[in-house]
Design a protein that fits this description.
mainly alpha; two-stranded antiparallel sheet; 2 strands; 72% helix
Length: 978
């Protein structure tokens, strides 16, 4: 079935060829190119057919289908021989260029005899000589054949490399790569890397470069100790070749790099990302290179004793590492043998064996912000690893039960280890409950285990599950004849029930009402349950205070502060009377939190300081990390980042003394990252954010982990670590629950948006544009969040404008304007429209002025709307920005009088800056542009110099000396030209 309607005339054909040229290489582009050749054959004109055949050969070449490329070229050559006048200079150049493509295709096919390869090179030489072309490209292909076969390449290299380059020579980047590979084969890593420098530094590039050179340079960089450079190039280079059938060998070398640097888990992740290459690569030579890299990785994983791990391989079955390795080894050995049989050497088998025999070059090299191990590949952990080994539990079953209950009464962290051990014992089929009055019946123990399970569910915000488990535990306590325990379990169910109801409630008032009702039920239950043990009554009082604290947090009402403090006072008095240290500490912590929520930060700090003094003197010590964490957050709110940093660092040290679930270490790392940012310690902040995300992921909270990783990605982008950002996001977006939508469409969109921005920052504009356009289309349906759609559509429009695609930019702007009608976003839209106007005028000059002014007219309407709505701009006013942009746009278009008038208006709107005026830089830039327009383009240097000198004097007097530098420089230029 055709992929699109067939072109009805040659104009439509050429348009379809242009559209297909914008597609990525792969089956869709190739099939479309085949259809366009069929369509071109229907017209009685040879030129469209030549263009269609050239496009088809390119699709086959870069789609890794070498068997078909020579067939298409044979048709082109026949057309050239029969109708040479059809080929203009450009088409003739393309034809002779592609002799090299055919030579490459024939080398990649082991079924083509060596004599045929040499015969083709003879044909190429004869054709070049007949056309009067220099033979340097021919000698380049002769050298590549000698390298492929495994012959002595010394003479072939000199005949090629010693000749002057021509228009038909491979591009500079490709030839640099071949020269470097020659030195690499000779064992000279340093010389190879020196040769590669222009390509690796980005000074020379082409469609395949620098991705190809990077993949070859990774191991030499490691061998010469340049690990940071290898890491950097791996991240950038892999992105340039992933999922590309024509660069499957490069992908294989990146997998090998991972295997030899202790990054086997990342290697398996990248293998999964490139699963399509197993079936899409039709080139035997590319298959051999790719499969050898895959085998290096799988061999390394198997040598580490993890052959049972899942791996991604050929479609149609499930693979383990060991099983896939055996399959890959058989196929790759067969391919190497076929090439060696054709060539009459053992070169390919020898090269393959050399790669497989390489020992790891590093035990561990941190490649990405999201470090993963083979354990993560096996099965994502569901619980965070303990910060310290769990406390030893008693061997005696009765003693273990008593110990668990004693620790649980104190809310001691080590109770969890005892309950975990008991849960395992009770679940065993041969479990026998001890006949011990001090232990009680089995039904009580089962109730204890349910209560512990309910508490852990509540800590994970699984409120409905927690409430149900508490109710079940209460029923069992009733069966065991323990009314106090049953009452406490029912009380514990009330709070998660209320929180569950609050989650579904619409608005803060409804949520607060649910918590008020829960508090009333707790009070009533407390009053109706006599004979409670002190620890039980204290817990009930704690639940009462917590319910009101949550209500205050929900409502923010001043009227809700006093009731919380009253309940806290009851708890504190009761706990003090009965010497319940943990509850005394809990009461003081609730009091400090209440002051903080109500906005009385100094009172909160005073309370927390007193609590810390008490904890250090009397304990319990496991409350220290949480208390220090709260004090750190309070100091962040008070803008005392250094004290916050000290508190949070101490909190993390204290947390290491207790099991991991004692304190939310992920929150501590997140808060510490914020403190680091305030202190200018950006790299340290990135490490803490990354650690926070890792802890969330290991704790089983995957959505929270992805949100944390999203913050990591944004910060890494802000720090200029573009490739780190992209690699992290690629890893996250490949996760199954992200791909299947379980993580939430908005979270996934945020990850993709950050990735699109990173691609733009990394100057991969084609990929960035595609992602932005897709996101703009998807977000158009977000009726509940038009503001986000405006942001995405506006960014998309500007990016399209930068690429000169103003028609598509106009469509994106129209989307943003529709959403703006629902939720006004004056500044975002004004900025977008002004930038599009600037881009139009900058790219097209006078020809683009009318369209640029139309964009500015729309920006003017947005400014009028903002003024009518009494909108306060966050930065400069929209009117000032608009006047300045009118100046720039008219200047780009050569309308200098209009430009100067607009800049004069902008200066009048801004007004002269004062001493502490943050508009000084903007005002100075406006003066500079007005001076340039007036002095250089309007050739009126005298008034321009007067303007500049007066501005310099004013800025200097106001203390803005830095802003005077561009004005002084322009004035000096104008004086030199007088």
């Amino acid at each position: 079935m055709p992929t699109a309607p067939a072109p009805q005339n040659t104009d439509e054909l050429f348009q379809a060829l242009q559209e297909n040229d914008r597609r990525p290489y792969g089956r869709t582009r190739t099939v479309t190119a085949e259809e366009l050749v069929d369509a071109a054959e229907q017209f009685a004109e040879p030129v469209p057919l030549v263009h269609a055949l050239l496009e088809l050969q390119e699709a086959y070449t870069y789609g890794s289908e070498p068997r078909k490329s020579p067939v298409v070229f044979a048709r082109l050559l026949t057309l050239f021989d029969e109708q040479p006048d059809v080929f203009d200079e450009r088409l003739r150049h393309l034809l002779f260029w592609r002799f090299k493509w055919v030579a490459h295709a024939l080398r990649a096919l082991p079924e083509i005899p060596l004599a045929s390869l040499r015969q083709w090179l003879t044909e190429m030489r004869d054709r070049y000589e007949k056309a009067g072309l220099d033979l340097q490209p021919y000698y380049g292909q002769a050298y590549l054949l000698a390298t492929h076969v495994g012959e002595d390449t010394t003479l072939a290299y000199e005949l090629w490399a010693g000749r002057t380059r021509t228009r038909l020579s491979d591009c500079e980047a490709c030839e640099i790569c071949e020269r470097a590979l020659y030195h690499l084969a000779a064992g000279d890593d340093e010389r190879a890397l020196r040769t590669w420098e222009p390509v690796l530094d980005g000074k020379e590039s082409c469609q395949e470069e620098p991705a190809r050179s990077v993949s070859h340079a990774l191991l030499p960089l490691l061998r010469t100790g340049r690990t940071d450079r290898a890491r950097e190039l791996h991240l950038a280079g892999y992105r340039g070749c992933r999922r590309n059938p024509s660069m499957s060998q490069e992908v294989g070398r990146h997998l090998e790099f991972c295997a030899l640097t202790g990054n086997e888990a990342r290697g398996l992740e990248l293998l999964a990302e490139n699963r399509s290459l197993f079936d899409e690569v039709d080139s035997p030579l590319d298959q051999l290179g790719f499969l050898t890299g895959v085998e290096v990785l799988l061999q390394r994983v198997e040598l580490l004793g993890r052959g049972e791990l899942p791996a991604t391989g050929y479609a149609g079955r499930t693979w383990t590492v060991a099983g896939l390795r055996a399959e890959v080894r058989g196929r790759a050995d067969g391919l190497a043998a076929r090439f060696d049989d054709r060539n009459g050497t053992t070169a390919h088998t020898d090269r393959r064996r050399a790669r497989l025999d390489r020992a790891p070059l590093l035990d561990a090299l941190e490649l990405t912000l999201r470090t993963r191990s083979l354990d993560d590949v096996a099965a994502p952990p569901v619980a965070a690893p303990a910060a310290r080994p769990a406390a030893a539990v008693p061997d005696s079953l009765p003693e273990l039960i008593r110990r668990a209950r004693d620790l649980d009464e104190q809310a001691h962290p080590d109770a969890q280890a005892c309950w975990a051990r008991l849960r395992t014992l009770v679940a065993a089929r041969d479990y026998t409950h001890p006949d011990d009055p001090a232990v009680g019946p089995l039904v009580r123990l089962r109730a204890d285990l349910l209560a512990d399970e309910a508490s852990r569910a509540g800590e994970k915000d699984e409120f409905a599950e927690a409430a149900a488990l508490h109710e079940e535990a209460a029923a069992l306590y009733d069966d065991a004849g323990l009314p106090g325990h049953a009452a406490l379990a029912r009380a514990c169910a009330l709070l998660p029930n209320a929180e569950s109801a609050a989650q579904g409630a619409d608005g803060a008032e409804a949520k607060a009402a649910a918590l008020t009702a829960a508090h009333a039920s707790l009070v009533r239950l407390h009053e109706e349950t006599p004979g409670l043990a002190p620890f039980q009554e204290a817990r009930l009082l704690r639940l009462r205070a917590t319910a009101l604290g949550l209500r205050l947090q929900t409502s923010g009402s001043d009227a809700h502060v006093a009731p919380v403090l009253a309940e806290v006072e009851l708890l504190h008095a009761f706990a003090t009377r009965h010497d319940l240290g943990g509850q005394i500490s809990g009461a003081l912590l609730l009091r400090a939190s209440t002051h903080a929520i109500s906005g009385d930060l100094p009172a909160a700090v005073t309370e927390i300081d007193a609590l810390l003094d008490r904890l250090k003197a009397h304990g319990p010590a496991w409350h220290l990390p949480r208390t220090l964490g709260l004090r750190g957050r309070l100091h962040l709110l008070l803008q005392d980042a250094q004290t916050a940093y000290t508190d949070l660092t101490e909190a993390l040290r204290a947390a290491a003394d207790w099991p991991a679930d004692t304190v939310d270490a992920g929150r501590l790392h997140n808060d510490l990252a914020e403190a680091c940012l305030h202190l200018g310690r950006s790299d340290e902040a990135l490490r803490h954010l990354t650690r926070s995300a890792e802890l969330e992921l290991r704790g089983g909270s995957r959505p929270d982990a992805f949100r944390a990783y999203s913050n990591v990605a944004r910060l890494s982008l802000d720090l200029g670590r573009v490739e780190d950002c992209i690699a992290l996001l690629d890893s996250l977006l490949a996760e199954p629950d992200v791909g299947d939508g379980e993580a939430g469409d908005r979270l996934v969109a945020q990850l993709r948006l950050t990735r699109a921005r990173a691609l733009r920052a990394g100057e991969d504009l084609k990929a960035a544009t595609a992602e932005f356009v897709a996101l703009a289309a998807e977000s158009a349906g977000w009726d509940d969040d038009p503001g986000s759609h405006i942001m995405i559509a506006a960014e998309t429009a500007v990016l399209l404008g930068e690429s000169g695609e103003f028609g598509r930019a106009r469509e994106a702007v129209d989307q943003a304007l529709l959403a703006h009608a629902q939720a006004p976003s004056y500044e975002q839209l004004s900025n977008c429209l002004r930038e599009l106007a600037r881009l139009r005028a900058q790219q097209q000059g006078a020809d683009g002025l009318a369209d640029a002014l139309a964009f500015l007219a729309e920006a003017g309407r947005i400014a009028d709307e903002a003024r009518a709505a009494e909108h306060e701009a966050r930065g400069r006013s929209l009117d000032t920005a608009l006047a300045y942009e009118h100046g720039r746009v008219n200047a780009y278009a050569g309308e200098y009088e209009a430009a100067l008038a607009a800049l004069e208006k902008a200066l009048a709107l801004l007004g002269e800056p004062g001493r502490d005026d943050d508009r000084a830089g903007e005002w100075a830039e406006c003066v500079r542009l007005a001076g340039a327009v007036e002095g250089i383009y309007l050739k009126r240097p005298a008034p321009a110099l007067s303007r500049l000198d007066a501005a310099v004097s004013h800025l200097t007097a106001a203390g803005h000396t830095e802003e005077t530098e561009p004005l002084v420089s322009l004035a000096a230029r104008l004086r030199d030209e007088e």
